[in-house]
Amino acid sequence: QVQLVESGGGLVQAGDSLRLSCAASGPSSSKYAMAWFRQAPGKEREFVAAISWSGRSTDYADSVKGRFTISRDNRKDEEHLQMNSLQPEDTAVYYCAVKSVDYSTDYTVNWEEWYDYWGQGTQITVTS
Q1: Rounded to 5 degrees, what are φ and ψ at 102?
Q2: Is the CA virtual torsion 114, 33, 110, 17 positive or negative?
Q3: What digits encode the pLDDT tens for the residues 72-128?
Q4: For residues 32 and 54, what is the distance between their CA atoms, to the nearest angstrom?
Q5: ∠ CA(50), CA(91), CA(15), 5° rounding?
Q6: What's the rounded Cα separation, in Å, for the pair 89 and 32?
Q7: Residue 15: strand pairing partners
Q8: Residue 68 pLDDT more than 90?
Q9: CA terminus-to-terminus distance, the chain
């Protein structure tokens, strides 16, 4: 079983930056593929960014490319999402997602059904 704890959400103005973090706790020998998804009011949950277990591969939704950066610290089993130039359309609940993988599964996946564990979600509100 893996538990995820998210932090870093809040209320900001357009153009501001925020950094989300997600800490995973599980078996120490596990490798995790990690990702961020978000759900805006009245909309379906959508992919934001993903990072492979080694950190060598990353993927982004077109809407956040060039503004958001996903990273990870494997010593702590943490992932981070640096969000710059935030816009009102970025307002959503952000969820971290994790899948326990083996050594050969060193790639990113952008569909939510693939991930096994989810954080509780953290609200980000961007005002204009």
Answers
A1: -100, 175
A2: positive
A3: 998 988 999 999 999 999 999 999 999 999 989 999 999 999 999 999 999 999 999
A4: 9
A5: 90
A6: 29
A7: none
A8: yes
A9: 40
The CA–CA distances, whole Å, from 1 to 30, 98, 99, 118 equal: 11, 11, 11, 11
Contact (Cβ atoms closer than 8 angstroms) between residue 6 and residue 22: yes
Task: Please state, in angstroms and rounded to a whole number, the distance separating the CA atoms of residues 123 and 128.
Answer: 16
Q: How far apart are CA 37 and CA 127, in angstroms?
A: 20
Separation CA 9–CA 119 (nearest Å) = 13
State how far the Cα of 2 lies from the Cα of 56, in Å rounded to an integer.
Answer: 23
**Would you say 101 and 2 are in contact if contact means Cβ atoms under 8 Å apart?**
no
For 79-94, give one letter per residue: b (16+ CB within 10 A) or e.
Answer: bbbebeebeeebbbbb
CB 97 within 8 A of CB 119: yes
The total number of residues shown for the chain amounts to 128
